[in-house]
Amino acid sequence: VGIPDARWGEIVVAFTQTQTDVSEGAIRDRLRGELANFKIPKLVFPVREGEWPTLATGKPDKSALRRLAEDLRGARP
Predict the structure, then answer these.
(1) 37 in helix, strand or coil?
(2) Which residues, other chains included, contact 47 with Cβ-Cβ below 8 Å and sequence gap of 6+?
(3) Nearest in space to 62 (alpha carbons), one of 7, 19, 2
(4) Whether the predicted pLDDT of 77 surpasses 60
């Protein structure tokens, strides 16, 4: 999802659910060969199974993820 950013206007944030612990850097490194640089997430947040905010249709709720990303970003040092 995209969230507002003072420098760039908006940045890409990713939410991931993995079977093992994977660092933010490892995820970005893996995506470098797959995506254009501007599409690589600046921030990566883990989500546990069953904790994804969803719509009534079962699809991820992007608005809720955007709000969560903004909250989590503000909590980071």
Answers:
(1) helix
(2) 15, 16, 17
(3) 2
(4) no
For the cut 80, the answer to whether the pLDDT of residue 75 exceeds it is no
Residue predicted with more confidence, 19 or 14: 14
Mean pLDDT score, 10-25:
91
How many angstroms separate the Cα of 59 from the Cα of each of 16, 43, 55? 15, 22, 6
Neighbours of 68 (CB within 10 A): 19
Specify the pairing of strand 9-16 against strand 43-46: parallel
Work out whether strand 9-16 and strand 2-5 pair parallel, antiparallel, or are unpaired.
antiparallel
CA angle 58, 43, 32 (to 5 degrees): 100
